[in-house]
Specification:
The complex is a heterodimer of chains A (about 650) and B (about 350).
Chain A (H helix, E strand, L loop, with lengths): L1 H30 L3 H21 L2 H18 L7 H22 L10 H13 L2 H4 L7 H5 L7 H4 L2 E9 L6 H15 E7 L2 H5 L6 E8 L3 H8 L4 E8 L15 H12 L14 H28 L2 H25 E3 L1 H4 L2 H11 L4 E6 L4 E3 H22 L3 H6 L6 E10 L2 E8 L6 H10 L5 H6 L2 H7 L21 H10 L3 E7 L3 E8 L5 E9 L2 E6 L3 E6 L5 E4 L2 E6 L2 E5 L3 H4 L7 E7 L2 E7 L1 E9 L13 E6 L5 E5 L6
Parallel strand pairs in A: 6-8, 17-19
Antiparallel strand pairs in A: 1-3, 1-4, 2-3, 5-7, 8-9, 9-11, 10-11, 12-13, 12-20, 14-18, 15-16, 16-17, 18-19, 21-22
Helix pairs in contact in A: 1-2, 1-4, 2-3, 3-4, 3-5, 4-5, 4-12, 9-11, 13-14, 16-17, 17-22, 19-21
Chain B lengths: L1 E6 L3 H12 L4 E7 L2 H11 L3 E4 L8 H8 L7 E6 L3 H12 L4 E4 L7 H17 L21 E6 L3 H10 L8 E6 L6 H11 L4 E3 L11 E3 L5 E8 L5 E8 L11 H12 L3 E5 L8 H9 L3 E5 L8 H7 L6 E3 L4 H16 L1
Parallel strand pairs in B: 1-2, 1-3, 3-4, 4-5, 6-7, 6-12, 7-9, 8-9, 12-13, 13-14
Antiparallel strand pairs in B: 10-11
Classes of the chains: A alpha+beta (about 650), B alpha/beta (about 350).
Chain lengths: ~650, ~350
Amino acid sequence: MSELEQYRALFVAESRENHENLVKNLLVLEKGVDQNAIDEIFRSIHTLKGASASMGFSNMERLCHKMEDVFQLIRNGNAEMSKDLGNILLTCTDLLEGMLDEIENGGDSSSKNPEKQIQALHLWLENHGGGGAEKRPSSPDASVVDGDGSTTAMEATGTEYLIRIAVSPESAMKDVRALIALQNLEALGTILSVVPSSEMIDEGKFDGTIELCVASDAGEEALRAAASGTEIAAVEITPAARTGSARIRPEETDKKGADADRKATTTPEKVREIKNLRVDISQLDHIMNLVEDLVINRGRLKQIAEQHKIKEMDEAITMVERSVSDLQNLMMTIRMIPLSHIFNRLPRVVRDVAQHDNKEVDFIIEGGETELDRSVMDGLNDPLLHLIRNAVNHGIELPEIREKAGKPRKGSVKLSAHRDRDNVIIELTDDGAGINMEKVRKKAIEKGLITAEAAAALTEDEAIDLLFQPGFSTADTITDISGRGVGLDVVRRSIEALKGTIKVETALGKGSRFELLLPPTMAIVDVMIVRANGKRLAIPISSIVEVANFRRDTIHRIGKGEAALLRDEALQILWLDDMVDRSDRPEILIVVQYQKRKCCIPVDAVEGKQEVVVKPLSRFIGTTRGITGVTILGDGEVVPVLDVNTIR
Amino acid sequence: MAKVLIVDDSVFMRTVIRDVLQKDPTITVVGTAANGIEALEKIHTLQPDLITLDIEMPKMNGLELLQNLRDVQPGPKVLMLSSLTSKDAEMTEKAIRLGADDFMLKPRDIPHVRDIADEMTAKIRHLVTLVVPPGHNQPVDRPARPAARRVVLIGSSAGGPPMLDSVLGNLPSDLPASVVITQHMPVGFTASLAARFERIANMPVKETENGDLLETGRILVSKAGFHTIVSMAIMENGTRTGKIVHARTPPLHGVRPAVDKTFESAAQVFGKSTVSVILSGMGNDAGEGAYAIKQAGGVSIACEEKDCLVYGMVRSALSRNAVDLVLPLEKIPGAIEQAVLHMEEEHV
């Protein structure tokens, strides 16, 4: 069910668009032939059909299917649009709209019976030779396509046939030929009578023709194929006396009827109900808080039920649990908004910066439909703005310089977003100058961030990291566009505050690429509950890469700190001394990773995995490195949630 | 990791397909394109291993894109996603002839999308690893194909086509038997299936027609919408063989063609010169058929569970105690050949 719901909104939105396009172009066609409009209509119907099939809305699918058949003929030039057809099609679009309304309200279009419209289209198709144009004769495959249940009465009951088989007179073994034909027919149905009988044939009383009556549902061609063969001169098949199961022709739905229908559906004038409400975001936040409380209390109830082993309560809690998770999911989706909300403002920013700097920039946006939680979105705006300004301001070169470097005058900045499993990835790439790492090193030394010796020893990744140090700016002059005393350090901090990460790749002269990895929502997190020195802690699963045994003989002292050796990899150990004091019997190592840096946390025991609501720490506690917030477990204990990104 | 580009003009479809594919850890969706022109650009920049391709699109449709892709070397593998219409079936066949590697139906009925999700991801994994050396697998058509006296019947459903690829690709061109494949498929799409197998198999492949004779060295694919009944035929020279009869008898187990119908009727005609093979498939079609073949003295082979996407059809045969050999997929072509050759000894 949830799978279906997940797509319902998208389905309705796209289908409404296609429906509007359909109506618009039908009206264009009323004014005269327009191939473009015909193509548009065809595509719209085709998409409507495909999408409704995917959603399993069979009534809508069947209607669209017929409409597509009609337009197939028109598009190929095998039939022309007429006023009557236009009217039929418009009643169809009215019905489609009704179906979409129903679907939007959670239905599946099953209460809207499209039979009348389908019949009208069918009639039109038959009159225009479309009924069999793309189908092989006598294979009503439309009925098969529409679902095997609707096969006509003709083939469902065994129809009786009179068959006359004549073996060619030259045949040397007439009896064998006849017996094989008989045997083949027997496999396809019931032989009611045969003259001469097979016994008589066996006895040689056979003059070359047999007549038989067969009841079979295999169809005439099948019978013919089974009876024919080498040295069979002729096979005559006639349906036996009317069995009364002849297909009932649909009553002619005449054009006047269709007109009348259209009038009936258009009056009274439809009043579209109000489907969308504007809600104050603070109210939504409040509801979210209540849902979080519910989640916590659900955990508490579950624990009580487990302790006391009350069966009825278990069942009741399971029901509550289901509603709570539905509610939780619903709240999550309500809070999701497409990135286009902030993306759409950016082209203007790019244009302004480019104009100011006399640069020429092509700005491409992709994946604006990717959704993020509102709270994540709020925090994303400023860092993104900063990065984009940077890209144009520092990244893209002046047109003349670009031409000298053999690049097109116009630089390109591309912003794209996509969902990758549990994360949303936003990429910003430019084909500008890239970041000069030598310059970065020099600057860092100048600014006293690092000594010359240390700078020389830095790896590429570590050098890139310098960019994110507070008080670092690579631009030669501070401009009023991107240099405002805030550097990439602020960007990184903002992204980390959203539980995201930022990564930079750069190639000198070719451009840079910033990748932001963000959780689509912040409120509910999967954590591992661990115990260290008797105290419980929660570690987000997303940052855990491995859980290993703690072995004292693998611990080595390196410089000021300690490291554990795990499969030839030295991992810095983070003792949680400041938080819970040194544990005297650590048994397990939790290996965590932040970007490319791995380290490990020794704990006493792992208690389990849980979905928890992370509550931020109150502001008067201030920022605490290593802790993102707290969560309240089912038994009421308040447990800190570690933040691997900032732990030192 | 298989890099996939999704080409479809509907945002809705792109979303559904992307969600389906992203659940598989071995597949990365590297991008989406709304029409052929966009797709060409993205194929160039993103170098996907495979594209899923819609037929109807504005600006440049799926067939036009395929034509353009002929110049791209090495191009991505192409999986056509078609809707269930006779028109699309026809276009799909054209697409296969233009070089598309495989096809399947677009996701229908989201509540049950998981059923097809597995099939789609399995198909993609199969396709990206499938190597068909150009020019290598030209089917060898014999100058004269004698009437078959031995028959190999293969029955499959969901998950069958990739397995059929590997079975047919490994059957020798001089297999002294006729092969009849009954794969559950919507009406109209079996011609595409046959066209696709033609590229992989070492023997000529064709969709069945009413009255087709079973010939040695030829593969027939049961046409959907009918039951493929094998009835008896006697040649001028007195040789007995089988011929195809398309029966419009109501669907059996909800399908038409039903494997049971083909297996049972062929067992009547070919008796102990019948080899049946059951591959992946849902439901219990094939159980009765395999039993009939056992009763007639034929050999019945089934594929191991680990190689089947769905084990229902094999299980239905096993439960009737109607299977001689349960083998991993890669051993099946060899076993078919052995069974057919062994029969010859018995016969002569």
